[in-house]
Task: structure prediction
Amino acid sequence: MDARVTNEVNYRAATLDRVPAAAPRDKIVDVSVENVVRLFGVTPALHGVSLDIAAGELVALLGPSGSGKTTLLRILAGLDLPTSGRVLFDGEDALKLTVQERNVGLVFQNYALFRHMTVLENIGFGLRVRPHDRRPSRKEIKRRALELLDFIQLSGLEKRFPSQLSGGQRQRVAFARALAIEPRLLLLDEPFGALDAKVRRDLRRWLREIHDKTGHTTVFVTHDQEEALELADRVVVMSDGKIHQIGTPDQIYDEPNSPFVFSFIGESSMLPVKVEQGKVWIDEQALDIPAKDVPAGPARLYFRPQDVEVSDELHGVIPAEILAFRRHGGSRRIDLEVGGRNRIEIELPADFSHNLSGWIGVRPRRYRLFPAAVEASAS
Amino acid sequence: MTDVAFTPTFVLSMRGPSVTTEKPKVRIALILVSVAFLVLFLLLPLAAVFYEALSKGVGTYFTALVEPDALAAIKLTLLVAAIAVPANLVFGLAASWAIAKFEFPGKSVLNTLVDLPFSVSPVISGLIYVLLFGAQGYLGPFLKSEGIQIIFAVPGIVLATIFVTFPFVARELVPLMQEQGTQDEEAALSLGASGWKAFFKVTLPNIRWALLYGVVLCNARAMGEFGAVSVVSGHIRGKTNTMPLHVEILYNEYNFAAAFAVASLLALLALVTLVIKITLEWRYADQIAASRRH
Result:
């Protein structure tokens, strides 16, 4: 089948003059989550989470498994109810609405396509099950489903069953099915979780284009930071049922506000240090980097492997013993040992050359210092 | 080494030499043992039933089937199945929904109890009802004062049959529904379907073949049940005799041709069930395979 092959290769959103799935302006909602707590028995899945999402925004809920991100998504969808707290759509209490009344487009991790229905029947399902007075005619349902099928570039596959589609195609059908009900809010649970790396990258770009065209307020859950940082307008970093940081991808990556976010997002190295007299000390060596506002006492120094400079001079820098050099794509990675116990990794240009053994001075150009107590309470 | 390819081993095994498959002699022996066993214990008796039934001619055969007591037994069997099968359909759906789709305390107990009739002798199953509803039973005096007869009457036969056949539908549905999870239903609800619409348009189509399969097996057992029904029936000719009981009575009266004639109907039912079962297994396996392809 030719269509199938080209569709696999080209995930660009259809360049139609009229976007069939575009959200009507008055239908896009802003979402407000206020102090939501969800207990499963006595175990809290969410401890007092608050979050505001602007109309038309694309927000990622990012966190490791068990962080409560899927629970929050299900509460937004109406498939779960919070133990306490409020959820508002456009300032109105959404918790009073049933899952059907919320009119939320939901895409599941495994797509949950109806296996006994064709692609076209799947897409039209939401329109077919509407109560009599709001149900479009059969002809109209078919027309809209075909239009959406064209929009997701799967024209010609309307008679296929889900089992006859590839993973990426199922993903897009699930997406069209959710768009067909003209949702006020789109929720995606690990939308690319079940796909292989190449298809995942292509679909990511496709989703961003679709979002920019249709303008829906969209929330997606992911454990893949690359996906969150690349795709979202804002990223919400969660762990243990709490929100650690909300910010743009730049803010999250460049200014992590806690040891958890620093170590969860991107690569990082950590060294236990001591703050005294406004200076950062490692063992008995004072570093020539300011301690900023961190109070005196034990602290942790975080930096990214690429945010360092090195010298042969060992004064005022972190003295480290070279363990190994490794080639890493376009750069070179060096494993170091500091103070005989802490291992760190730094990244330098590929043309950097040095003795394969011996000592080297490391000075972080960008770093964050966190008091050790914060670390203890956060983890 | 190339010589190996031309040895008889290769020719017989058809798929090339393998270190894990059995030797041809072993294979042939295994096949012969199974076939001989099937012929001896299944095909011969089946043939014997039809042979004996027709031994006194086609006329006698049909006379035995339309004789009033036989007709009454056939009617009663159909009636019992017509009550027991739908009852177990509803029970099976409810129980498997409860076990597969949500969590509640005592769930594993329910799951185990569903299997109980399989592990209890049918005679005991019948005796339970005699103990409960019989003249000397716990509820006997009350039922007598109200003029309700359960034991040695149709209600007792229906109850015993329902008890013996209730695992069939649930056993088929629970594993399938557990595997399918609740996501399809959640998707349907979020798309605006009401609970009933989600059930009829999504859940039921997802389990239709397994459900039909369970119903067919349940029906076969409901019509063929002997032990439990024998205990509660009272063997009143033309009133509380089902087909299996009628066969027994005729046989005990040395009326072999008539006994085998009625038995041939049950054998026919078994054959039809077998055909439906094979057809469904073929369809249903296909569907399962499709749902697992991810």
